[in-house]
Structures are given as structure tokens and as C-alpha cells.
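Annex B. Sample input.
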Amino acid sequence: MKKLLAVVSVAAAFPVTAMADNIGSCGWGTKLFDGQSGVAPQVLAVTTNGTFGNQTFGITFGTSGCTQDGTVKSSWKTALFIDGNKEALARDMSVGSGEALDSLALLMGVEAQDRDAFSRAAKSNMARIFATDGTPEIMAALRQVLADNAQLSRYTAAL
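Annex B, continued. Sample output.
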């Protein structure tokens, strides 16, 4: 029960992250509400796509701005890993290596040639990343550290 509450609380803490990908990039709703931000346009776009089934049709047949080569991504596994391994991650980041840091890199899909740069960036920004104890704040800080690094910026989608 305790783990279920942790999962729900972590998921509830990421509404902005989740909303960023709710619409997708195709379907009539996406085209109709293109460029608008906020809850209402997102809900209306998703409702439009769902009500008329046009996003499903578009993905299936490559119409309405949809493609068939998209990838579904989620950061909930990363959030749960960070939440359950904060102390070990902080320790590993402080020295720039360790099992928890390696596991995080693997979970985030950091390629082998970028692992050293990932470890160096984590070490040099450890105080910034762990400025607070909250998982959403840790993820946001790590996302910003990666975004600021030209070699590692492509891994921000995993957070």
C-alpha cells in the first residue's frame, strides 16, 4: 500500500510533464488547437481526437499529420527510480560513479559513449540537482543540467 501511495504521489507531481505530450503531434484536435497552451486547449484537442477517432485513423493510415514511426515515452519509471534511490544517487553523484548513477543512466537510455559525460555532469552539478529532497525538483534540476550540456541535451526527454 505504501508503494502504491508513492507511485500515485509521484505521478500526481508531474502534471505539467504529462500534459506536454497528451495531444501528440497529429489528428484534427492537434491541428485545430495548434499553438494554444493550457488545460482547456489540451483537453479540447484530446477530446476532438478521441471523439472522432481521427488520431487513431491518422496513425494507422498516415493521414492528418500523423506518422507511423512515433515512439511512446514516459518518465514514470525514472521518477520511481529516483524516488527510491535518492541517498544512493546523491552519494554516487558526489563522487561521479557508482551503481545507482550507472542504473539511472541506463534507465534514461544514455548511450555508452555518453556515460562518462553524464557522470561528470552529475558530479559537477550534484548540489544543484539535489538542492531539494523532492523527486519532481530533482528531476527538473537534472533535466536542466542535461539541457545545458550540448552532448547530453538529447536525454532530457527521459525526465
